[in-house]
Amino acid sequence: MDEFLSAALAFPAVIFGAALVVVVCFWLLVLAGAAGHDSFDGDLDTAPAGLSGVPVSVSFSLLVVLAWFGSLTGTVLLHRSGTGGTARTLLSVAVLAGSLLLAWAAVRLLLHRFRRHFPAEPPPSRLDFLGSVCTIRTGSVTGVFGQAEVVSRDGSTAVVQVRLAEPLHPLSGPAAGDAPLVMGSTGLLYAYDEEGEFFWVSPYDAALDPGPNSGPHELPGGPNH
Known about the structure:
about 220 residues; 5-stranded mixed β-barrel
């Protein structure tokens, strides 16, 4: 026990020991609800170190625990070796660097295996809005201008650029019964133009939607029209 305490309070184990105390206090605050486990995710980027995929607090905690254990083991071995003077100082610095390096490699390996079994969700894409109903937010929508508000799956809203395809012949316009897209009207986002970065939109009438249990419905201008 005395050997353990002597090693824990000696350099370099004492450095990681102090960091370990901070880590334990942080997780006690998380358990008490006074802090969030992802509190530092917006401030630190661990991707360059290969430690991304989990909250920063998790990767840092693992790093500190493993580095502390490695430095403690190395310090005990130094005490038993009986080395002193300059040689002991140099070996202590080597234990510090080696413990940190080995801990980093171990955490990176653990996270690599973790990410392999739990792949990250794909980032949000504008293509997620395809097939969504939107609300026109500009005075009107033409083939060159228009904006609409659409609700994403998580409940947030976004304003997207929309365009209305020009009618193939005069009878396909409002005279044929199509409602013009004006502010406040409802439209359906049915295609996305990658080059122009806008959605093609068509008038939408909820009364004409057969519902999810009636099979896929044809978009305006489909083969059955």
